[in-house]
Known about the structure:
This protein has three domains: 3-277, Aldolase class I (TIM Barrel); 325-385; 390-501, Alpha-isopropylmalate synthase LeuA, regulatory domain (Double Stranded RNA Binding Domain, 2-Layer Sandwich). It is built from 17 helices and 16 strands. The protein has helices at residues 25-38, 52-64, 78-88, 104-111, 115-129, 148-161, 177-190, 210-219, 241-250, 252-255, 266-277, 298-306, 334-343, 351-367, 373-387, 430-442, 486-503, and strands at residues 6-9, 42-46, 69-75, 94-101, 136-141, 165-170, 198-203, 224-227, 326-328, 371-372, 393-401, 409-416, 419-426, 447-455, 464-472, 475-483.
Amino acid sequence: MADKLIIFDTTLRDGEQSPGASMTREEKLRIARQLEKLKVDVIEAGFAASSNGDFEAVKAIAEAIKDSTVCSLSRANDRDIARAAEALKGAKSMRIHTFIATSPLHMEKKLRMSPDQVFEQARLAVRFARQFTDNVEFSPEDGSRSELDFLCRILEAVITEGATTINIADTVGYAVPEMFGNLIRTLRERVPNSDKAVWSVHCHNDLGMAVANSLAGVMNGARQVECTINGLGERAGNTSLEEVVMAVRTRRDFFGLDLGIDTTQIVPVSRLVSTITGFPVQPNKAVVGANAFAHASGIHQDGVLKNRDTYEIMRAEDVGWAANKIVLGKLSGRNAFKQRLQELGVQLDSEAAVNEAFQRFKDLADRKAEIFDEDIHALVSTQAGDHGAGDHYHLVAMSQRSAIGEKPMASVTLSIDGKESTAEGTGNGPVDATLKAIESQIGSDAEMTLYSVNAISGGTEAQGEVTVRLAKGGRVVNGIGADPDIVVASAKAYLNALNKLGSGIERVKAQGL
Ligand code: KIV
Ligand code: ZN
């Protein structure tokens, strides 16, 4: 029997560290349910000690997920580890993941600790974590820039203390495949008790080599890859789950490894993560990009028509492209809608929330004949943004006028903390005029660093999904809004971002301490 490659998904932890990608507890739960359907082996649900919100999210995911191991990150100290253990205690299968930086640069400049102190802290952290579970992962942060002798010494010690997974982090995306593969092989050869742990790789994509580095690790004995959906993550992101999985599956002849993943769930989860975080997927992205299976050139089309294998190394349906089917329409009833929500892993808090979502679905179905899964995801994602408890701003009404030769103008009525107000604005186009009319009432002074529009399900009849990124006082948030009218979608996205900016959720950062 071939070895199995463990897929450890960290979309909800490392992916969420991407500026503007922070998610609510409900959003994280929805993604976790999809990850469970995808059959990932381990879900890193968050960093429980970083904030109450993250603690609650890890706890909720630990209680809900049955088929994947649920993991929380924790720094190498008792408080973080105890907090992780507390959040995870309802899990059917749990893992504590503790880490500390081991490179000379990080130890001296960031931690201001000597190598001996770091060694001792790592050992004690793993010993403490083992009191709560026998599934403990240890990561030497900035492992790829650490000194080999020190790395061997510390890893031997934490395995002796009971670490069952050793995860070598290329924290700043500095490694190159040959070097990283050699590092994994050398560590496995030199650490005397290396056979007592599963070796894992965790790569960042700063030089565009995260997937290549991870696969080089796998070729040298790593049996766990840490990755995120769509490669989401800080800076240039993390290793893409979909690319690693499809590489190992498509080239099984080369890697010779088994996977537990249900690949038909890849596209649905990719879309869900993109909708929730507001990070669009580039069209030419491998596996999950809209063009990944589109053959435009005549020669390719001719070849594919004669025999698919001429130009297709994977089947679109094997990664879930066929899942984009019409699910409901204008005549669908509440029960059909509720059942589809369940199938999509969406659990709304109350019957009132289901009723509200159903009403929104009916409104949408009046304006759009075919409702796709993506429309439903967008509908419930923006529901939280438009009507979330504690939101200050809600859209009540809006209109705009634009004609060639005239300055576009808009009028927007908002409810601000329950009080209605209306203002007009002019701008370069209807979207600009609308956002100015909103800003004149709210006066956020936030800087807009991104505005993008995507058609959710193709064609001009599709809903437009707008992402707006705002920055203010060191905080960055993404807002999303969906509507068949892209000006309305823009207003919703802008308000969604302003509501998040006003929520003041702060968290302790895992790294950079
Ligand atoms: O990139 C990194 O070093 C990490 C560790 C916490 C594993 O995310
Ligand atoms: Zn990382």
